[in-house]
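> tool_call: predict_assembly(chains=two)
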Amino acid sequence: MTDTILEVSNLTLGVRNGNRPPTVIVDDVSFRIARGERFGIVGESGSGKSMTLRSIVGLLPRGVEILSGSLRYGDIDLAATTGAARRALMGPEIAMIFQEPMTALNPVLRVGDQIAEGSRRHLGLSRAAAWDLAVSMMAKTGIPDPARRARAYPHELSGGLRQRVMIAMALSCKPKLLLCDEPTTALDVTVQHQVLRLLEDLCEEVGASLLFVTHDLAVVNQTCDELAVMYAGRIVERGSVERVFRRPEHPYTAGLLASAPDFDQPDRALVAIPGFPPNLAHRTDGCAFAPRCAFAQEHCHTASPPLEEHEAGHAAACFEVGRLLEATA
Amino acid sequence: MTDVQEREQTTILRVADITKTYDLGGRGPWSRGPRATLTALDGVDLDLRRGEILALVGESGSGKSTLAKILVGSLTPTQGSLDWDAPDGAPRGRHAARRVQMVFQDPYSSLNPRLSVRAMLSELLLLHRIVPRSDVTAECLRLLNQVGLDADALDAYPSQFSGGQRQRLAIARALAVRPDVLIADEPVSALDVSVQATILDLFGTLQRDLGLSILFVAHNLAVVQHLSQRVAVMYLGRIVEVADTAELFSNPRHPYTRALIDSIPRMNPGSRNSMPILDGEPPSPFDLPTGCRFSPRCAFASEECSTIDPPLTAVAPDHSAACIKSLALPSIAPTGEQKEKQ
């Protein structure tokens, strides 16, 4: 049994609607991350992947609430942790890298001071020692001329450099769990490649676990060991990246893989998934993917399939796994 | 017929020696030193052939969007010319707008939220006198049909559509004036993966059915490889390599193109892209390096690279690269080797 660092069980998030029942945007999501593991969550916009991530760090937008379920970090119940206790956790234990390096940095503070803030607060370093640590973290993330760049303001840096500053900031207190919300979508391919390799190397160095949220399947394949696919607020498939890519057991995952262009197979036709994601305010009893699914049977529209393991370490929420595997075999 | 004439015939739009510089002032009371000039494009030559999809790729700041804006006429080049394959020479004003149309990256901000689809399309049809007033509705329906939308869409507003459908509307709007050339600036990068495929498919259909020439600005090389016939790679305001898509990706002759290919995240299960990373950042456009502008980051650079600024030269039929070592570069590793697990 591996050491679990984060356990999310039956997490349900909803938006309150006055007196009416809340709109459920994340529904009964469970997963666990082992120490040192790299876990990816893939889904399209509106699938609830970013909300799941935000609930872990306590950054849910106003109006979104945890309706049920638990978030456990070691022995700590994250949902019940607020104020000073949460602040003590954020940085040395859990850190986050945001999607937009342009907006996540404070524009009126030098980047060196922003990186140093965490280590002064959590590690109790002096101003000078924290600054030196910030410069050495910047050097570690491959920022050229870090001593000079530490004195720069965010607007003086390019997107790639700003993202490195975010990484330096997140890793300066050596967190045990690093959360990344689409950290490379705003970047060019060459810079994306640099940043992904850097994340991988640094996580290995400080021994951090990684929770990586993205919509890009190829990026998940590059960075993660385990994977959960989300659709309409639910996890529809979970397993090792290699297994899920080789033998998807949910029609949505299969559809995503077929619709993404693969550089190594230029001649493969792209097959889009017909239809649209459902409106979460009008949930039906059936599988949320059934209206778009080529394998859907009558019972798919009336009952929601549970997430079940069909082979060890690989689970899917689909009644018709057999038919899918037959069709793709 | 000579080769030159043949090429002339198939080229619909030729860009010759286009330069775009921005004078950033520097004579004010607080200025120090000489006036600063930013060179966004530096002597770009490019042919767009009739009926092809030409992809323009490069890092941000390489000038690809500037070039696209010059082609649609929303920016004027500092120097250089745009040559049209047209009997009356370069079209101007309203006529130019009819020949080149643009599809933007973000379909959430490129459509007017207060105009219904009917109003948006009929305004164009009437202004440009595409069809008589009595046929406007029928033409609107034909356009919607062409981009795969129903007649129901006609009286709806942009907010009622999803991202993919909005991008279809933006394409319908571009097609309304029956252009010869469509310029698409990252048209799928704001869309979800499952929707991207349908929009890419639509571009392919339009190219086949209408004989449209499309300049496709993109940064996702897997998408480019899937859709385009030719690819032009830009770096710091220059085109560094142009070739047929298959040729460019299998036999790149510029080190920067190779670096781009090595950076692509792969989809093969269990594979990790362990290719070397391209060091450093693109140099500042205010202060370009001497010689080849890629040389400070280039793994193959030697001393002469910092003195010789290589022009774009033919290395094979239909394949040009701007590198003095283009013929001496070792061929890239077959993809199978890259896929090996680390």
